[in-house]
Amino acid sequence: MQSFSASQLGLTLVQSILPGVDAGATVKYVRGTVRVGTDDGVKSASDLLDDGEELDGGHAENQFDLDAGVIAVAGPVRLGAVMRNIRQPDFGSDAAHFSLPRQTRIGAAIDTEQSGGPPFIFAVDADVRRYTTATGDRRVVALGAEQWLWAKRIGVRGGARFNTVGAQERAATAGASVAARNGLYVEGYIVRGGSEADRGWGFGARVSF
User: Fold this and answer.
1) Tally of domains within the chain
2) Distance CA 62, CA 180 (A)
3) Is 51 within the bounds of a domain?
4) What's the Rg (C-alpha) of the chain?
C-alpha cells in the first residue's frame, strides 16, 4: 500500500490577451512525502531497508510545478481550459514513488443574467485525458446549475459528475448559499455516491467585496 501527502504554496498571475480573453498561470512550490504500508502500519520509505541501505525519497521533498489556464467570455457564454501539474513532479524513489498526474480540463458555461434573463448559470466540463490517482484511473465529466432567488438572497445549486474510466463512479451534489447580510454568505454542500473520497458535506462562510 502506498500513500502520498502534499502541501503547496502558489503565486497566480492573470493577463488579458484579447478583449474578453484572459490567461493565467500559477507557479507552485510543492512539498510532498511518499509513504508505503507494512503489516505494522504505514511508515515513510526512509524507514525501510533494502540490502542494508536507506531507501531514497522517504523524506519530504520539494518541487516546483505549474498550472495554466485560459478563459474566453462572449455575452452569456464562457469557455475555458486548464492544465494542472504541467511538470508532473516526481517524489520518492523507485521503491516508493509517486508522480503528480498532469490533468487537462475544458469547460463551458451559460450565464443567462448576462443576456437579460434570470440569474441562472449552467456549466459542463470534462477531462481531456485520463489520469491515475490512488483510487484508480479517472476521466471525469461534470455538469451543474445554479439559480439565485429573492433578489440574490438565496442561491441553490446542484450537479453530477461521472468517471468514464476505471471504477466509473457516479456522484450527485447539492448546495445552497444564504446572504446573511450584504457581502456575507453562509454556505453548505453535500455529495452522495461516487468513491469514498468523493462523499461528504460541509458548511462555511465567506465575505465578498
Assistant:
1) 1
2) 42
3) no
4) 21
